[in-house]
Amino acid sequence: MHPVIFSYGPLHLYSYGLFVAAGVLCAIFLVRHNAKLVGLNPDTSVDLAIATVISGFTGARIFYVIQFLDFFKNAPLDVFKIWQGGIVLYGGLIGGLLGFAFFVKMSRLSFLPTLDLFVPAMALAQGFGRLGCFLNGCCFGAECDLPLAVKFSFLGEKVHPTQLYEAVFCFLLFVFLYRLLKKKLSAGKVALAYFIIYPIGRFLI
Q1: DSSP letter at 38?
Q2: How does pLDDT run along the chain (205 residues), one tens digit per residue?
Q3: What is Dmax (Cα atoms) for the chain?
Q4: Residue of 196, 91, 86 lying closest to 188 (CA atoms)
Q5: Is the dihedral of CA 94, 19, 137, 82 positive or negative?
Q6: Percent of the chain that is helix, strand, coil (3-state, to 5)
Q7: CB 31 within 8 A of CB 98
Q8: pTM for this one?
Q9: Strand partners of residue 6
């Protein structure tokens, strides 16, 4: 568990924030690199990616704050400390999709082909985020005595490193979705594969 990678005086580099940022940057690069596969201008794809990221993080944070509203009532400024963790995945998906849909509509883009472009990058970014969860010490699994079990400093027992399970799952899902995207299937099939496979994998983990 290494929630803080580096500190210098009052400045702290948080592992969670670092990995999330790395995932977002890799996702944006991937979207831009493959934009022409769906007939999208690369620069427009970056604008759309940034809008989606902002709306996604907003939705993810709102869902988290709602879950722990009593705490944030007493510490309202902590709402903005997103670099310390505290986001809800499905809130992020909802917020991201809303922002994505709004931008697509305003820019008069084709919804399904553009969504196909984005879902492999989403899976990749989620994999990086789960690595950040592991280093942050959150989102761990049930008690476990298998050789792969891990022990965090604040726990009395070893647990399943479910963060790593999901990271591996997301990276494999990214590879699968990326291969589908390259095959240029009919619009919507890559996105459909993501929205079927990811919830099943997350449920099993």
Answers
A1: G
A2: 787 887 888 888 888 889 999 999 999 999 999 999 999 999 999 999 999 999 998 998 888 888 888 888 888 887 887 766 677 888 888 999 999 999 999 999 999 999 999 999 999 999 999 999 999 888 899 999 899 999 988 888 999 999 999 999 999 999 999 999 999 899 999 999 999 999 999 999 9
A3: 54
A4: 196
A5: negative
A6: 70, 5, 25
A7: no
A8: 0.89
A9: 13
Tokens matching residue 149: 């079990």
Query: Can you give the length of the chain in residues?
Result: 205
Nearest of 159, 132, 162 to residue 4 by alpha carbon: 132
**In 3D, which of 85, 116, 134 has the Cα closest to residue 183?**
116
DSSP letters spanning 121-176: HHHHHHHHHHHHHHHHT-S--SB--STT-B--TT-SS-B--HHHHHHHHHHHHHHH
Residue 202: closest CA among 114, 85, 96, 88: 88
Say how far apart CA 37 and CA 92 lie, in whole Å: 26
Exposure string over 65-75, b if 16+ CB within 10 A, otherwise e = beeeeeebeee
- Euclidean distance between CA atoms 107 and 99, whole angstroms: 12
Angle CA 95–96–101, to nearest 5: 100
